[in-house]
Design goal:
By secondary structure, the protein is an all-alpha fold. The chain is 58% helix and 0% strand. It folds into 2 domains: 37-102, no CATH class; 104-150. It has helices at residues 5-12, 41-53, 59-66, 70-82, 93-96, 105-151.
């Protein structure tokens, strides 16, 4: 005996309810694609301030109440510190008088390139040293091979 979906729903107590508009049983076809949430800079700063002011055990409660993840807060704090929240000022910058890093994008890029250049120069020096050692080892092996050939006297033929 097979039981239909409607009979199962009636047995569970869901027969009086209409199917949800987002479920697969919606009469108007598939549900619309959910829209991505967007947050205003003011909202981001308000949540950041509340999150940072919350005691250690209460930070998760702020996130749960707002329906956010910790990655949201981390990303928003980085954007705030970089000054990317559309002219909204960071409350911490008022006290320091400057931005957090104190360096322009060009200075950061220059420092990154200098560090990469130093690493590549160290790799090149290590490679040159290894090649020098390999060349000396090759020359030594050639010398040993030549001296071994000279030391072997010709064998007398047996009659």
């Amino acid at each position: 005996m097979s039981v239909s979906t409607e009979e199962r729903r009636d047995a569970v107590g869901g027969g009086d309810e209409s199917p949800s508009s987002s479920g697969p049983l919606a009469g108007d076809g598939p549900s619309p694609r959910p829209s991505r949430r967007s947050f205003s800079p003011e909202y981001k700063l308000r949540v950041l301030a509340e999150y940072e002011a919350a005691p250690k055990g209460e930070k998760g409660a702020v996130l749960r109440r707002e329906g956010l993840y910790s990655s949201h807060v981390i990303e928003w704090a980085r954007a705030r510190d970089a000054g990317a929240l559309e002219g909204v000022t960071d409350s911490r910058k008022r006290f320091t008088g400057s931005n957090r890093s104190g360096r322009s994008a060009d200075a950061v890029e220059l420092e990154r390139l200098r560090a990469r250049n130093a690493k590549l120069e160290a790799d090149l020096a290590r490679t040159r040293t290894a090649l020098d050692i390999m060349g000396k080892a090759h020359a030594l092996l050639e010398q040993l091979s030549e001296s071994a050939e000279d030391r072997d006297p010709p064998r007398p033929s047996r009659k």
